[in-house]
């Protein structure tokens, strides 16, 4: 799950030497960081080392990652007039470093490689706020003050995202996960209008490629039935739902991924094992179930506890 690498001392050692975007732009380093959790944990698939916000780098919005702050966008968007001046970048050119990173990973890693992107709504919210935000006020204001303008922005980001996913597929990723990390800001009807509509465009555009698409939202417990209506290959469920109960409401041809509360990794090993087994037991009759956390790891989580979790799944 998200930013999984940052709890590993091996990642931090590299990060001390290189700026985040330099890591993303250097294929050998992408392959190195991508393989770190595979080497340490022995998990079944690798998630590409990159970030959902690189599309904003391609759009020349001044993306950088600052220590202790997270992502910063120097040139945020605040009005419809500014949207009209945005352009659709040629991602084959501006994000060629991602394709090169994928190729380097494929040479080095023997497990399947998962590529990813941000959902248009989540990427838009970073672009509007200029980075992370406590209350996402500007984004919510825009929903109510100028929905048409916001749709123009989402539509452009959706086109760029589809181009970007196709670039990753051509370079060799074997599945794609879409992260809608800020979907939980939206009420049900707003979710349909400002997020689901664009997720549908992405899923439909990628269907002919045959590459499985996994949809994750923060709020996917709440929006699961709407996500299922898009018929993605899989839905990744956040940690708030009882997964076995929720699975009964969803079509059986969609794989479910999730959803252990990542904060369990702060507990002792016997608690980790117990909670993990409880989840596995609840999902034992669900074909295609993919064990995962319900959101990201935090930087101060013990690598040993993460390994204990993976070993518990392996041995169950
Ligand atoms: O685990 C991995 O390394 C996989 C690659 C990956 C990263 N970001 C690398 C990263 C993935 C899948 C992401 C997704 C991502 N990025 C999301 C969606 C997932 C989610 O959280 O719901 C979001 C919202 C982002 C945007 C982003 N990037 C934030 C908010 C931050 C700061 C987070 C923090 O608290 O440090 C980043 C930075 C980032 N992306 C790091 C990594 C390894 C940490 C970089 C560092 O400080 O060294």
Largest sheet: 7 strands, parallel
Poorly predicted spans: none
Amount of beta strand? 5-15%
Question: What is the number of beta strands?
Answer: 9
Distance N to C terminus: 21 Å
Overall mean confidence score, pLDDT: 95
Q: How does the overall form come out from the CA principal axes?
A: globular
Judged by helices, strands and strand pairing, the structural class is alpha/beta
Helices and strands, in order, run as: HHHEHEEHHHEHHHEHEHEHEHEH
The distinct bound ligands, ions and cofactors come out as: coproporphyrinogen III
Strand order of the largest sheet: 1-4-5-6-7-8-9
**What Rg is obtained from the alpha carbons, in whole angstroms?**
19 Å
Q: What percentage of residues falls in helices of 4 or more residues?
A: 40-55%
């Amino acid at each position: 799950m998200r930013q999984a690498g940052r709890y590993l001392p091996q990642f931090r050692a590299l990060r001390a030497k290189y700026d985040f975007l330099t890591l993303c732009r250097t294929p050998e380093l992408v392959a190195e960081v991508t393989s770190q959790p595979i080497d340490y944990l022995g998990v079944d698939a690798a998630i590409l080392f990159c970030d959902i916000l690189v599309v904003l780098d391609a759009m020349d919005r001044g993306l950088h990652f600052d220590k202790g702050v997270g992502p910063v966008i120097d040139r945020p968007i605040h009005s419809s007039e500014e949207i009209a001046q945005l352009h659709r970048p040629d991602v084959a050119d501006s994000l060629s470093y991602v394709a090169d990173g994928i190729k380097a990973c494929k040479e080095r890693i023997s497990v399947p490689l998962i590529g990813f992107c941000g959902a248009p709504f989540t990427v838009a919210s970073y672009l509007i706020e200029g980075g992370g935000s406590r209350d996402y006020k500007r984004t919510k204001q825009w929903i109510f003050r100028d929905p048409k303008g916001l749709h123009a922005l989402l539509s452009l980001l959706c086109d760029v995202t589809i181009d970007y996913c196709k670039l990753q597929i051509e370079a060799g990723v074997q599945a794609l996960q879409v992260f809608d990390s800020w979907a939980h800001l939206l009420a049900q009807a707003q979710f349909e209008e400002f997020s689901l509509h664009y997720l549908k465009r992405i899923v439909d555009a990628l269907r002919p490629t045959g590459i499985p698409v996994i949809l994750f939202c923060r709020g996917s417990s709440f929006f699961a039935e709407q996500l299922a209506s898009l018929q993605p290959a899989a839905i990744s469920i956040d940690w708030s739902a009882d997964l076995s109960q929720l699975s009964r409401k969803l079509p059986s041809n969609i794989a479910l991924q999730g959803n252990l509360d990542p904060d369990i990794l702060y507990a002792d090993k016997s608690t980790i094992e117990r909670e993990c087994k409880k989840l596995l037991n609840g999902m034992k009759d669900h074909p295609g179930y993919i064990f995962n956390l319900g959101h990201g790891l935090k930087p101060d989580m013990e690598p040993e506890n993460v390994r204990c979790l993976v070993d518990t799944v392996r041995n169950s």
